[in-house]
DNA sequence: CGACCCCTTGAGACCTATCAACACAAGTGG
DNA sequence: CCACTTGTGTTGATAGGTCTCAAGGGGTCG
């Protein structure tokens, strides 16, 4: 699994020594076996229609191929830290990522989870406002922000897609702010599970038995609760038949409408 | 103050009958007296360096002038509602705007305040994810999103500035999510006041005696607390000398560092 | 002057956090 | 193979921060 090269990439990134030098498969920092290369538009991944470059003109795809590269990480690896100079955006090819902010006393708030097809790390002449960490073994497609920006000057389609992703992210934030500011513990957990389910559906995975890539602590730090409250709430949901827990890391939603009702207090 | 035309614009916008037809000063829907026109790059406002079009090439500014128009609203007027088709972005020329989401049972979460120079309403082929309402008498510069997008294909500077605004907004959201998910009541109020102060400073206003354009209820709905808690907290801050309240709507910050310490629990 | 709105203050209730303990699975090393 | 450790999830008892409910003060405006 190209373990050693993945380590090199991780160290490079985690140490803040990210340069603007272009890298691509074959580069010592991010070697990707030929077998790992997918059948997507750019040949870097197999995201299909989820790929950032899906549907772009061949010329554009070619340009993107030159500047992007695939990187691999293990769970708990740090991709970049809050305060690092932001030089690239990432597309998740496989696995899951969490991004979070820390307070001086150690309190943590996870501000987002990213799965296959999701894009994160937007940053324009400035530092990353958060830390990004692999939740599971991870494969990401890395695009230098500057190059992406330059490319978008001649390829409006690229620019439009970036704007689409960012507006979608902004809308997500509005929802999450509502969750954190005004929802009860039950509503938060229900909303979280529904959102996971909906996102799974949108990327073509089954909407109901959903795998929980993250642990209870991460869920708690995302919805602004404690582990205990999350655990108690999920147990309560199971007792009430709102969800099923075949294993601690798998959630089935027998009745979406019922869970939805629990997610905004209309239950 | 062009009351009747402002009413017309409001009704048009609030009723969801926003069209993509270009409008400009002189248009019956958005008449702006000549005296109201500023000395900014486009002649629509006097935002100076805060203006969206500041620093753009003359050709770009001219293009922008053709598609943008200035609108006026009174406090409590609704600019657009959650679910309305998103067709335009707005720049605040004077006054303040709040955007919020409502839950079925009436709970409200304000997700943002916007002041002079701030831009809001980003929306690409989709509906607004929130409602926008004037907090004070308001003057905004309206730019059709579609036109802005078209223009940005030939004027990369426009596109870059949009990206800048959106990444800045994303960073703000990360901070606000941390506030809502992990901060105590004291920390929330302190953070809020500091952010107001900082934003005032950045747009060239004094950082310390800051006017509170919004009431306690709005503050509470923004920081995820109740009015009572906000009021109690501010009273406590005043008692402790962290802030001064010459009037309920004016806050002086004698010691920024002390308030900052209170904003992240390092006090 | 009275109605209304906003802000403030007080007392008690409630939801969630905190602290503590236990179950269970997966390593790890003797 | 077992003892031990570690990590994760669950459950219980208690405490505490914030909400809820209630009332009063001060300003504005008709």
TrEMBL record, chains A, B:
**Keywords on record:** DNA-binding, Transcription, Transcription regulation
What Gene3D superfamilies does this protein map onto? Jelly Rolls, Winged helix-like DNA-binding domain superfamily/Winged helix DNA-binding domain
GO cellular component: a single term: cytosol
User: Which GO MF terms are attached to this record?
Assistant: DNA binding; DNA-binding transcription factor activity
- Give all residue intervals belonging to the Cyclic nucleotide-binding domain: 73-121
Q: Does the keyword Transcription apply?
A: yes
Which stretches make up the HTH crp-type domain? 183-257
The UniProt entry, under PANTHER family, shows: CRP FAMILY TRANSCRIPTIONAL REGULATORY PROTEIN, FUMARATE AND NITRATE REDUCTION REGULATORY PROTEIN
Protein name per the record: Helix-turn-helix domain-containing protein
Which organism was this protein described from? Roseospira marina
């Amino acid at each position: 699994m190209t373990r050693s090269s993945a380590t090199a990439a991780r160290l490079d990134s985690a140490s803040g020594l990210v340069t603007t030098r272009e890298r691509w498969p074959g580069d010592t920092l991010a070697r990707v076996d030929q077998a790992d290369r997918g059948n997507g538009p750019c040949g870097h991944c197999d995201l299909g229609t989820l790929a950032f470059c899906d549907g772009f003109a061949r010329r554009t795809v070619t340009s993107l191929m030159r500047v992007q590269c695939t990187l691999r990480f293990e769970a708990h690896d740090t991709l970049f830290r809050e305060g690092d100079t932001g030089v690239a955006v990432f597309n998740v090819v496989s696995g899951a990522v969490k991004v979070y902010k820390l307070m001086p006393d150690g309190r943590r708030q996870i501000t987002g989870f990213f799965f296959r097809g999701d894009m994160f790390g937007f940053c324009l002449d400035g530092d990353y406002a958060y830390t990004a960490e692999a939740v599971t073994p991870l494969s990401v497609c890395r695009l230098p922000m500057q190059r992406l920006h330059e490319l978008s000057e001649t390829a409006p389609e690229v620019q439009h897609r970036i704007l689409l992703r960012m507006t979608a992210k902004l809308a997500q934030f509005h929802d999450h702010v509502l969750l954190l500011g005004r929802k009860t513990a039950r509503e938060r957990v229900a909303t979280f599970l529904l959102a996971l389910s909906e996102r799974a559906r949108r990327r073509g995975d089954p909407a109901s038995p959903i795998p929980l890539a993250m642990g209870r602590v991460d869920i708690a730090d995302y919805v602004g609760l404690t582990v205990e409250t999350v655990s108690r709430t999920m147990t309560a949901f199971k007792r009430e038949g709102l969800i099923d827990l075949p294993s601690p890391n798998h959630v089935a939603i027998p009745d979406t409408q019922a869970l939805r009702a629990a997610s905004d207090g209309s239950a």
